[in-house]
E3 ubiquitin-protein ligase TM129
Amino acid sequence: MAGNTENSLVVLYTMVFMFFAGCFIAPPTEFVSAGVTVQNIFSQWLGSEDFSFIYYHMKRITATLIIHSFIPLGYYVGLGLLSPQLNLFSLDDVGMFWSVFLLGSLILPGCICAVAIYWHHGNCNNHPLAKQLAQLGSEHDSWRAVASSINVEFRRIDKFTSGISSRLVAVTDSWIIKTSTYYVYVAHQSDIHLTLSDAEEHSLSYQTQTAVQYLNITVGRVETGLQPFTIRLNSMELGDLKEKLQAPIRNARNIVIHQSLSDMFLKAFREQVEQNPTFSPPPSMEIEQCIGCMQKDSDIKLQKRCEDTAGEQAPDSEACVQCFCRPMWCLECVGKWFASRQDQQRPETWLSSKSPCPTCRARFCVLDVCRLTHNSS
Ligand SMILES: [Zn+2]
Ligand SMILES: [Zn+2]
Ligand SMILES: [Zn+2]
């Protein structure tokens, strides 16, 4: 009878231990917010991810492997404390099974530590991440040149990122990066083809209480010898990701992608603006780059066209007024600005609402947004 109780205690301990070990190896969001991750425990030694991304992740991978290699030993010690009748701490009485287990759980961290020393010896030249970077560089570049290019680009604030540090997807001006527990995949933007390979739908996300769709995008390599990898992200993030990518994402299987609210709004906004009258700028007017994105030419002039006249009598009211700014924005940036000024809880009201001009604060509605016609002369 007593033996039965002890056995079930061992089984229970094993299950609880495996649960926590699992949470530690692949932490769910709650664990990450509670700070129980290798990154948090070793944050001093790892340094700053934003400042030196590659060196941070080299150390993170090594630290993670070392810590994880101690898990079997931790299990053994915990079991020995919990069940003294197993005699795990007296080496003469311990049974065959547990002797082998103990030996294995001592050899494993020993081997991992030896590998870690080999990797970090000689300025990390033997680290798997360094070897991958060496393949990415041109013949004369060392892996350090590639690493510093990635570090510099990762410091920029306009990069795309999604996920936490050990499961991160990042896209910078020339690199696409995915981190996993024991590895970091790096590809040059000019060396990839992207395919939307799969989509999963989850009817309810506990974070947002709505249906979410996750997309798996395969990053194939043009150059042979480098492994393809898959990035996974929420379909709502796709718009931001695409802005940063140079190559299109092939959707060969015609997967229906759930659009984010702002993507849907931008589409409706654009459709309305296409129906509005256009504005032809006087020949003397010089059209400059959009000051929002610095990428497209300005193609919008705010011209009061709607029937809303209340503004002329009471300038402080919520009515539309004429904006006298020269064209400074592109359609996408005006649309995003417009959406950002609305009640985020009531998207159905956005298209019929108003927003101040981003430059002079004159109120306008969607009917007042006019595209520029290009003078042929
Ligand atoms: Zn713009
Ligand atoms: Zn204005
Ligand atoms: Zn108006």
Remarks:
- The radius of gyration is 29 Å.
